[in-house]
Fold:
Amino acid sequence: MYPIQATYPATRFRRNRRTDALRRLTQENVLTVNDLIWPVFIKDGTGDETPIASMPGVARQTIDGLVRRAAEAAELGIPAVCLFPYTDPAQRSEECDEAWNPENLTNRAIRAIKAEVPDMTVMTDVALDPYTSHGQDGLMKDGMILNDETVEALVRMAVTQAEAGADVLGPSDMMDGRIGRMRSALEAAGFHSTAIMSYSAKYASVFYGPFRDAVGAAGRLKGDKKTYQMNAGNSDEALRLVARDLTEGADSVMIKPGMPYLDICRRVKDEFGVPTFAYQVSGEYAMLQGAMQAGWLDPVAGMLESLLGFKRAGCDGILTYFALDVARHLKR
Ligand code: PBG
Structure:
């Protein structure tokens, strides 16, 4: 592969590393503010934010707080936010009808951001777990997660999000056939420009633990999500899923979690060359924050190095809870 043989002393790699200027000049990958998508947890009401114990530095925001933070994010140059609702437990149900209520928390938040910070790209999560009484991502019957019925519910949910003004829909449910059904419904309803970023390769992962605290699903969820999320041992399957979702109309794809799955990011980018994103999920964030707070890891350098890894693995962007901190740092 490399015709040039690097032999010492003609070749000394340290020459290019000698000064900061030379290192910058020969750097292959860079992290910029344009690579960031900021996931935000939202809650009803007004007033104080609610800190999430397992995610230091992250809190559930009310819509008015969210709009202020979104304005700050836009000011810093962050291109997108991604909304995750903490649904009032009274609004969770077996049928999940709150998911497609045009006035639900997410849809109100989308409208509020679009009204006040119109240039901010608003991305949503399309999955039923914030709305089900059992905390699973789909409709359940006799202990089984129903595929096709869930897809119909997700399509209704997606259309209300598009109506509310969402720019990018993020189906994170891992049901089969959802991208195609969603795309046709969006086209039929006139939402030709609403994009879909498919969580194509989403693994059944222990790293989602703190997120489930944040959205109030942790106490409800019994068992796991292994009948729909991917087996952590699989790699070829991720390529088949990405191929399938692209065929069905996905505009971009996502790999999730991030850091333990950078091999998948690289394979997807090499194979398809499409806009490829990864999600540095709650457990990765908690793990890094835990070490940072204990004084075992430099916070700024740790955050930047963890994210640069995604760029090196071929990602075009990263969903990260560090987004605001990174953007502030990059601006300095
Ligand atoms: C739910 C969803 C999850 C995350 C994003 N959307 C959790 C899950 O699948 O159980 C996880 C994000 C994170 O851990 O930061 N559809």
Observations:
- The first strand starts at residue 36 and ends at 42.
- Residues 147-164 form the longest helix (18 residues).
- Residues 34-331 form a domain with the TIM Barrel fold (CATH 3.20.20.70).
